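Hi R.,

Here's the chain you asked about this morning:
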Amino acid sequence: MKDALKVYGPLAAAILILLIITMRFVAPPPPMELRFAAGGVDGQYYALAQRYADALSRHGIDVEVLETRGTMENYALLNAGDADVALLQGGLADDESRANLESLGGMFAEPFWIFTPQPFAIIGSPAIGAYPIQFPKIQLLGDASMRIPSPFPRITF
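And the predicted structure, written out as tokens:
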């Protein structure tokens, strides 16, 4: 018995040490299911999320695409832990979102067009012969979507 302990004792200790080292440094596997906050079913974000869901399903990952009212609701779902991934419009995060969330990168540019009579100048920018435009906040795409500066009065669609 003592001979077996002399042989198998160090072997068991080495296996235990290797197991502890492996558990310490090897990352767990990625989740096999995701909740993806994506916007309205008729929008491009939702269509893109569906494409991601289809691609990930080929690798055995189940994706639940969540219909939302827009970027601000997507931020809220991420902060609350009710969504794992979301497509968001950049530049709209509040302090809580900036502290809690991490961006994986930009997907595509989303321009915002302003049409005005000419000439015009935004307050603080140099322009000769232009009248100044102050930017009140307006709300577009519903209550939960976003707030952006605009020279127009508050409009809700």
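The beta strands are 33-39, 62-67, 85-86, 120-122, 131-133, 137-140, 146-149.

Let me know if you need anything else.
M.
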